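Exercise 7b. Backbone tokens:
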């Protein structure tokens, strides 16, 4: 499913047009984002406190490159 999210401020001018545009596509649903500012992550618990920041790059190959 693909969601086409319309901000609430733009809903009066965009929602109906997008809904008509995607009417024939059953995989797309047009929705209005009614969340208030700061509501998105409010009240979520911490990640358990066991989070570790690691370097995801490959370790370097031991040794040195020959001089050119």
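Sequence design result:
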């Amino acid at each position: 499913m693909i969601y086409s999210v319309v901000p609430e401020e733009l809903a009066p001018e965009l929602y109906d047009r997008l809904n008509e545009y995607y009417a024939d596509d059953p995989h797309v649903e047009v929705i209005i984002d009614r969340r208030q500012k700061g509501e998105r992550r409010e009240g979520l618990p911490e990640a358990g406190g066991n989070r570790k920041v690691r370097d995801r790059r490959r370790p370097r190959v031991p040794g040195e490159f020959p001089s050119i």
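Instructor comment: The mean pLDDT is 84. DSSP finds one helix and two strands in the chain.
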